[in-house]
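May I ask for a single protein's sequence together with how it folds?
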Amino acid sequence: MKTIIVIGGGPAGMFAALFAARQGHSAILLEKNEKLGKKLFITGKGRCNLTNACDMDGLFSNVVSNRKFLYSAFYAFDNFRVVDFFESHGVRTKTERGSRVFPDSDRSSDVIAALSRALRQAGVSVRLRTKAEGILTEGDRASGVLLEGGRILKGDAVVVATGGRSYPGTGSTGDGYQFAKDCGHAVTPLSPSLAPLTAKEPYVKEMQGLSLRNVEVTVRDKGRVLYQDFGEMLFTHFGVSGPLILSASAVVGEALKRGSLSMTVNLKPALSAEQMDQRIQRDFSEIQNKRFKNALSRLLPQKMIPVMVRLSGIDPKKLVNKVTKEERLRLCGLFEAFPLTLTGIRGFEEAIVTKGGVSVKEVNPSTMESKRLCGLYFAGEVLDLDAMTGGFNLQIAWSTGYLAGISSGGQSQGQSAC
């Protein structure tokens, strides 16, 4: 029986400790917070989007960074095994729009409670309020963990599952990156991902709090389309947010480092330009004696009307029966491509995940073991892996955590560095 030490009580760490213990080993789970799953608790706005019920191709296509690295991990513990795991531990699940899987209760606390029960049943030693400060080594292998205050905890293998730098208030302060560097690992540049975006136009602040559903967002860099999708977005005091924008940030974040990007919103994507013009003509024909500034309530939410009126260049006091065809077509163009200029991405405090991390070139994808130090494993967000919204980042955590857990005890089919 080996002693496996896991640093980090998030999803990847809990899975690593659980499955190491289920292999018959002594598993010790270290968590510096006062409870497990602090970041997991707030995921999905507290509902916890466990995974996504898409097929395997869908899993891979939604990974943004280093998807090929995840081949062994995803096949070892796929999304259907995640669902089966939680169902078998008393968490009924449901699948919603976009194949997103949630606990039926809509409570992330139920997910954490199920994991805590499983850890107890497997005999995992959970040590809360215990901060790791470094990895101990003997020769070419990891031999334990240096704890806060100089205490030493000896072990046969160490799994680093400390998360990234996003939501630092939950304890994700990037400790694992320093552990990796101290052990000779390269860490790729870190940046926030799945985060709100800032916009140049002052009129976004006028629409703060306005949520748009069923719109199509397109982001371009000098005319080249970087991102396009359909769904929901939100205006904020600094720019834009919401599911569409968070997903866009994962794709356009690097381009934003080089300069601003143009973004357009198709407010009525179900209508062609001709159909949009006909719709406006029909509305105007029913309210011919209204002023233009009062004529858009059937087409737009109230907060957006003053902005649209200004951008159209049409005199707000003009009667709609006096609006020219040229003016009307200009208005149609705004419905098809409402303009914004993206200037940046918000910080780690608002980002769901971290882009960048421990270089996967130095980690065995079949075991999650370091190629530089025997007995050292990595799992979850600390690795240079990130994905789109929809449960895919948690799937990465479950899959890599599982593989690190079974491998650290020597049960994996992959080749060890030792």
About this structure: The mean pLDDT is 95. Residues 392-408 form the longest helix (17 residues). The longest strand covers residues 224-235.
